[in-house]
Write a sequence for this structure.
């Protein structure tokens, strides 16, 4: 009996530690049970570290000449194996880049899930059957832990709905009462960067609150409003994410926008939306909600190549402010638009950052910002247009941009103590951003440094996964001396394209995981190197689940 009770206790310790790991994924999947389970299946995130020793214990119990005596040994061994795995389990509250947030909801889900697990463990611990018959059920319990989270969340759904509606109502009422100018930002990519740039510019002259990091969901935005918004804030900038058609419309009901920015529309959400037309409709829910309140919308001129965007701009010309890139873009002007466009006349970058000449209301402005990546030129232009649109003098925008801080994990240049340079683009996972990061790596390469690209590739590209990676693999061969392909089996077209285009002095290193990549970097990187970390999948989508 002692060995059975100890095994039950060890199983609960393991379940608590592993439960946090699975909750980390569940939280990032918006507590959507089916989506979470689909991810688990696609990522093959089934337990191995605990299951394999339990299988060994089961085999020993089956082979034991004395079922009772050796069965007890098997249970003690299984207990120690579970405790050992629990001891080395990663802590997503500390170890992850996008950490698990231990909200009240997370605590409720974990408590109910552990309660279900405890009932299962007690039933097995008190069962008088031989270990050889019971160990498969302990293995089943290990593999079934994700299901307990889904079941716990489903059982709590009515409670969560009432709680969330209460938070929603509090945030909505507070926002209406304090009445800051609400600026909403969305797009397939670039929205977090534009939000940070605009918040810095506005914050130089007026009290400004933005949703931090990548917070862009109803509960995330509600929490920021409830906890951070004060009557001193003149501007509230909210990033709005789309997890399906109707997502942004719901966010606009929570935080009705007075001003909107749509950064772009691209293939970053193909896995969710399946086609670009659906992405456009989803993103333009923000534009429709804004003009319905008499607000204005900043759009890149290139968006007008999409029929829905073109029709919207034509129907709401007086409310649209277009930004055209240096290449002019598609449909730079819309007949009858009251507000003039912001146009990028020319742009470039050097090792100190980006620079551009912008044309606004017939006046040229020389803009410089100490951030990197040519794609940020468009982001700066959008923020410039929005800041001017809400009343900041253009020259004051120019002045504020000179002190713009780097944006964490988005082409963030970090000189290292050993003299090398790390280009941290760990949050970027789209073709445009990847290409821009390669251009910056090439700039360092031309300055005399060796260029090293570390990447596991991009995500959420759907049917474009292989073709997009093939194109970037060929491009990488022109910008990098070394490719560290992390989990190369998921990006074979990138690896093959790099090899095909690479010269004899260029190197491809296939790394099973980021630990292997870090080991290679530790042994091979020195003062003359520039390392580009392009998309850190284990922390963001593969969620560093070592099972």
């Amino acid at each position: 009996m002692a060995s059975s009770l100890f095994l039950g206790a060890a199983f609960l310790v393991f379940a608590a530690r592993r439960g946090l790991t699975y909750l980390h994924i569940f939280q990032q999947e918006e507590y959507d049970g089916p989506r979470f389970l689909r991810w688990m299946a696609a990522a093959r995130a089934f337990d191995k570290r605990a299951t394999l020793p339990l299988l060994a214990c089961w085999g020993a119990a089956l082979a034991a000449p004395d079922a009772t005596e050796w069965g007890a040994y098997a249970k003690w061994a299984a207990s120690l194996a579970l405790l050992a795995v629990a001891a080395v389990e990663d802590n997503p509250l500390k170890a992850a880049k996008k950490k698990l947030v231990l909200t009240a909801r997370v605590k409720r889900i974990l408590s109910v899930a552990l309660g279900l697990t405890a009932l299962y463990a007690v039933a097995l611990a008190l069962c008088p059957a031989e270990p050889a018959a019971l160990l498969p059920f302990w293995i089943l319990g290990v593999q079934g832990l994700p299901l307990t989270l889904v079941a716990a969340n489903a059982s709590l759904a009515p409670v969560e709905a009432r709680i969330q509606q209460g938070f929603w109502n509090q945030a909505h009422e507070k926002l209406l009462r304090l009445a800051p100018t609400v600026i909403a930002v969305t797009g397939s990519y670039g929205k977090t960067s534009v939000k940070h740039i605009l918040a810095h510019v506005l914050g130089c002259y007026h009290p400004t609150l933005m949703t931090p990091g990548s917070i862009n969901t109803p509960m995330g935005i509600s929490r920021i409003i409830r906890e951070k918004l004060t009557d001193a804030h003149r501007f509230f900038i909210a990033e709005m994410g789309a997890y399906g058609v109707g997502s942004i419309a719901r966010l606009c009901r929570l935080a009705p926008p007075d001003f909107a920015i749509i950064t772009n529309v691209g293939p970053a959400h193909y896995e969710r939306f399946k086609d670009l037309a659906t992405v456009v409709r989803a993103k333009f829910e923000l534009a429709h909600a804004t003009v319905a309140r008499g607000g204005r919308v900043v759009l890149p001129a290139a968006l007008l190549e999409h029929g829905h965007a073109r029709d919207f701009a034509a129907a709401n010309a007086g409310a649209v402010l277009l930004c055209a890139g240096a290449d002019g873009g598609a449909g730079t002007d819309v007949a009858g638009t009251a507000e003039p466009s912001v146009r990028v006349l020319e742009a470039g970058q050097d090792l100190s950052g980006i620079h551009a000449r912008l044309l606004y209301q017939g006046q040229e402005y020389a803009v410089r910002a100490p951030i990197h990546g040519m794609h940020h030129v468009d982001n700066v232009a959008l923020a410039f247009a929005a800041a001017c649109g809400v009343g900041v003098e253009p020259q004051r925008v120019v002045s504020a941009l000179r002190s713009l801080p780097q944006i964490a994990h988005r082409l963030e240049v970090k000189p290292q103590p050993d003299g090398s340079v790390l280009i941290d683009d760990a949050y970027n996972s789209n073709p445009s951003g990847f290409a821009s990061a390669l251009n910056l790596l090439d700039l360092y390469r031309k300055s005399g440094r060796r260029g090293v690209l570390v990447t596991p590739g991009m995500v959420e590209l759907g049917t474009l996964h292989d073709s997009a990676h093939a194109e970037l693999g060929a491009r990488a061969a022109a910008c990098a001396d070394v490719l560290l392909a992390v989990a190369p089996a998921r990006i074979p077209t990138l690896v093959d394209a790099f090899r095909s285009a690479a010269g004899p002095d260029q190197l491809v290193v296939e790394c099973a995981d980021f630990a292997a990549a870090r080991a290679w970097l530790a042994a091979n990187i020195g003062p003359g190197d520039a390392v580009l970390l392009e998309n850190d999948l284990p922390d963001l989508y593969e969620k560093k689940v070592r099972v």
About this structure: The two ends are 29 Å apart (CA to CA). Residues 2-28 form the longest helix (27 residues). Residues 328-340, 538-545 have pLDDT under 50 and may be disordered.
